[in-house]
Amino acid sequence: MNGSTPPANPTASTSASPSTAPSASPSTAPSASATVPPSASASTTAPADGKPSAGTGFASWPTPTDEQPVSSTIEVKGEYDGSLKRFHGSGALGGSGQGEGQDPLFELADGATLKNVILGAPAADGVHCTGSCTLINVWWEDVGEDAASFKGKSSSARYEVIGGGARKADDKVFQHNGAGTLTIRDFQVSDFGKLYRSCGNCGTQYQRHLVVDNVLVTSPGKVLAGVNANYGDTATLSGVKIVGDSKKKIVVCERFKGNDSGDEPTSLGSGPDGRSCLYRDSDVTYQ
Predict the structure, then answer these.
(1) CB neighbourhood size of 2 (10 A)
(2) Which fold has domain 132-286?
(3) Which residues of the chain have pLDDT under 70?
(4) Which of 19, 116, 214, 241 sits between 20 and 30 A of 40, alpha carbons compared?
């Protein structure tokens, strides 16, 4: 793995060639008992600073090793190790609004990996994945428009978020605009609108799949997973731990009727249904 410090020039690409995106296309939607797709080796998931948060077993929020302003999008091919620097937007990327269409701090090519990065405020539109990608130990201190957007056009696209965390998301943390499957594992989120949303009104719609495993959720929050039932989306959840929500106000999985016209999507209900929202009551615990 490349443990070197990222280049000082934020516009530079890493030199490693991107790996090939997985070619297998799922023939069926993930079931409630589906196993989580294999990740990069466990050794790549190094906790932020090695210290678990009290009583949770999850890594505590890391202390930045350095600070780097980003005035133009950092394009990543291959692997980019941020060495736990804090990256924040400046200049054209220095806005803090919630408008759609902002540029990201990082744009990952198909097959790229981003690891050991802290995104500070302002974070612009966070991270964009143009195809399959892996985010390892990435932390969003104050989510801008979205923490990360997944835009691959192939049903075989695979996106993995391993470790890390996000907080202060007025709306979405992970926005799934493209096709394929997103896996979120060993992640923590707090003070958020939606952890995941399959785009409800994109001009081009796809069938999308989500797998959530071992995620720590701290209230306040609104929805963990929002999927479009009419396009065959699925959300498979297990090991979800919710803290500070004794009245169970956070919706675990909400189904929508999506569209490609730009209209506001219609909610079709929430809770496990064996088709779109795939989990059991025992897969979600409250602390």
Answers:
(1) 14
(2) Pectate Lyase C-like (2.160.20)
(3) 1-56, 95-101
(4) 241
